[in-house]
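Researcher: Next sequence.
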Amino acid sequence: MPAFTLRLFLFTGAVPVLLVAQIGSSQANSAGFIRDRNVQRVRAAGPRTAPITETVLYTFFGAPDGYDASGPLIIDKSGTLYGTTYHGGANGFGMVYKLTPTASKYNETILYNFQAFRDGANPSGGLILGEHGEFYGTTQYGGEGWCGCGTVFELTPAKNGAYSEKLLYAFQGAEDGGFPSAVTLKDGELYGTTPAGGYTKGSSCPGGLLGGCGTVFKVNPATLKRTVVYRFQGGVDGNRPQAALVASAGALYGTASSGGDPSACPSRGGCGVVFKVEKSAGGYHESVVHAFDGSDGEAPAALVLQKRSLIGVTAGGGAADAGTAFAADTVGSRFSTLYNFGNGSDDPGTNMALLPQSSSTLFGASPNGGSAGCGAVFDLKRTRSGFGETVAYSFQCGGDGRYPSGSLISDVSGDLYGVTTEGGFGSRFDCYYTCGVVYEITCQQPNGCR
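Model: Next structure:
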């Protein structure tokens, strides 16, 4: 009998628990398995005066390939791309892949297939590169914990070109935290957030096995020691952190999607905050850099550091209640709304960070909007009166991709790279629609997309 995977979600609160069962027998592909689909690059022009081209570098085909890609990607000096898919792979629980460029196409190599029970399931938040060629990341589910509350993992290259996975930590829920977001490497240790868990007495969030308002944690890859740096109380300090942290001048910065000012967004206990965590005499101290009030945004997503400013987006709020782009200083208390989304072709989403391409240009990928409603790549450019937005490329819901996910990255020439969760020419019964693509945006101008 062919193997298949049964996945059930048990809703016990704000975050679902994943229950998995492997039925039948299967033989996973080796970590070095190379898939050459001979997929040619597909190009589509964007609607701008300066020609902008979208190129499909790779189309996913579903298991044993992956689908539902999650960004951001990593690119090395040779132009090889590395990333993860939330689903698919030999076991159905996601995989890590690399795409190697040739003259006419990209070849995919599956570096690791997740197995769910011990090593984790459904990688999210992309990868980060260590000092010795290793990769670090998180899975949202799976692991050794009773609840399958996610893991932090390390992938190390082997001599034969394959990668071996090492479980660094499996989350246990309750006071510990669960369902981690992406990690950040700082001074040899990994820092990240969980949107659930971390319950302490006096917290405004429900208790129980998965109770709590979320945590900031750190894991030492060498010793495997895990420390809860901060447990959110769900009040003015914030609630539900679920994006990567940014390190600057000895401190860590992040966002919580709710909490903050209780008089704003009362149904959420606040519209969310930008927070700062730094070492103190008693361990770690959390402070609020900015609490959103709805008019300047609601539900902030991931941050990016540009000089001394934290640049980010919100999923809602603002002048049109469609989200904002904002800047918050790491020194001082200055906060500014850079742009109010809401022209019908943009939607910043909840898992995107903006990409600064210069001091006056920011790029992003919207999961919705665009001329066809299947997402868009946009840029925000500084003008004398503030920032103005241009849609660089609108996805057409077909072979060019559908619903971009995560943040964009850039190469040295200024070209942009990203992923979509659907679209492309690959389709199998295990993909919801079509299986998604890896794409490149090229701007035909001297400085590329800058």
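Model: The first strand starts at residue 4 and ends at 11. Residues 66 and 88 are 4 Å apart (CA to CA).
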